[in-house]
Amino acid sequence: MVALFKDRSPANVIWLIILSIVVHSHFVFSPPQVQARDPDGLISVFLLRYLSDASDLFLILVYHTIVVVQALRLNYLFNDQRMFTRNNFITAMVYIMLTGLLPEWSNITPVLIINTLLIWLFVKLVRLYNHPNPKTLLFNTGLIIGLSVLLYHPSVLLVLVVIFALLVVRPFNLPELLVMVMGVLSPFYFFAVYLFLNDEFPLFYRNLPRWSLNLPAVENPRMLLVTAVLLLLMLGVGLFHWQGRTRRMLIHVRKNWGVLLVMLVVTLPLPFISIYEDLDGLMLWLIPASPFIAEGFLGPKKNTFPNAIFWTLLVLIGVNNWGFLIRR
Predict the structure, then answer these.
(1) What is the dihedral of CA 79, 84, 90, 96, to 10 degrees?
(2) Does an H or E element contain 311, and which?
(3) Model confidence over 271-281: pLDDT tens digits?
(4) 131 pLDDT higher than 90
């Protein structure tokens, strides 16, 4: 099955849609729900106001559309930047499968929406190397971060990723850093002006990130442990194969992978330091994790181990979701 997605055939787009339907087949009995908390950011306000009463069929279509489009966009970015030795659809396959790994990731949440902006942010970061007009690009990058934070407060951690990218991908330049900071602050400035003109300025303070140590609620600790072990195994195998070919990478490709690695580390603790977060907050981690896990499917010369991981992952998805329905 894995070999199917190693090809660059356009027909794989259809297979990805089918894979998304199979992975989330539990929608037949438990359609996706709108899971949002008002203090999380403006996306939560939008979801609660406009999508909370939508029909089940509409929410299913919205969820599949968002996930498949994100998977294809992420996959296209890595093929376009020559991040792998050959073009493939493995990254898209991995991302779609990971979205079904936990029941909390099968809902329409602010994190699911913000993943689109995270992919867009990475598109900007990979273009920093030798860009002829870096200040414009950096301002737009900061603008994406500021918008992300305004829409979903915990994404403020992405500022660390961009600062690292600015230090690694390009020589340090204070004016460029200041331009990026101006981009980050711009959405907050215009939002504050809008609230002030409408006599609602106190709402501005509700849209600032709040931090606190947080332990997400877990309904089935045993299955979560099994899932975490499988995820770490896949990530470890991917990192092993990625490390084995870093010396053969072009300089800018190696730096892009370095930025992605920092993103992987930065987004992991998000549910544990944001006061309102649950396990759905970990979905932000799927964007940087998917390409590294994809290395584990592409690295081995034979498909025996990748196929075993694929079917193990698919079985675990079924247990986590269909077993979750039975317990309810």
Answers:
(1) -70
(2) helix 304-327
(3) 777 766 677 88
(4) no
Instruction: Convert the pLDDT of each residue in 202-220 to its tens digit.
Output: 878 777 777 666 666 677 7
- Measured distance CA(17)–CA(13) in Å, rounded: 6
Report residue 302 as tokens. 């034979």
Q: Cβ contacts of residue 274 below 8 Å, gap of 6+?
A: 153, 154, 209, 210, 211, 212, 214, 281
Domain definitions of the chain by residue range: 2-127+218-327
Whole-prediction pTM value?
Answer: 0.92
3-state secondary structure of 34: strand
**Phi/psi of residue 274, nearest 5 degrees:** -105, 130
How far is Cα 77 from Cα 82, in angstroms, rounded to an integer?
9
**Which residues are CB-contacts of 288 (< 8 A; sequence separation ≥ 6)?**
260, 261, 263, 264, 267
253 in Cβ contact with 311 (< 8 Å): no
Tokens coding 12: 């794989």
Residue 328 has what pLDDT?
44
How does pLDDT run across 163-183, given as a tens digit for each residue?
888 887 777 778 888 888 899
Residue 117, beta-bridge partner list: none
Tell me the pLDDT of the chain averaged across its residues: 86
Residue 209 Rama label (left phi>0; alpha psi -120 to 50; beta):
beta
Query: 142, 179 in Cβ contact below 8 A?
Result: yes
Asked if 76 contacts 70 with a C-beta cutoff of 8 angstroms, the reply is no
The span from the CA of 44 to the CA of 35, in Å, is 8
Q: In a 10 Å sphere around its CB, with 0-12 CB exposed, 13-18 middle and 19+ buried, how is residue 315 labelled?
A: exposed
Residue 162: burial class (beta carbons within 10 Å; 0-12, 13-18, 19+): buried
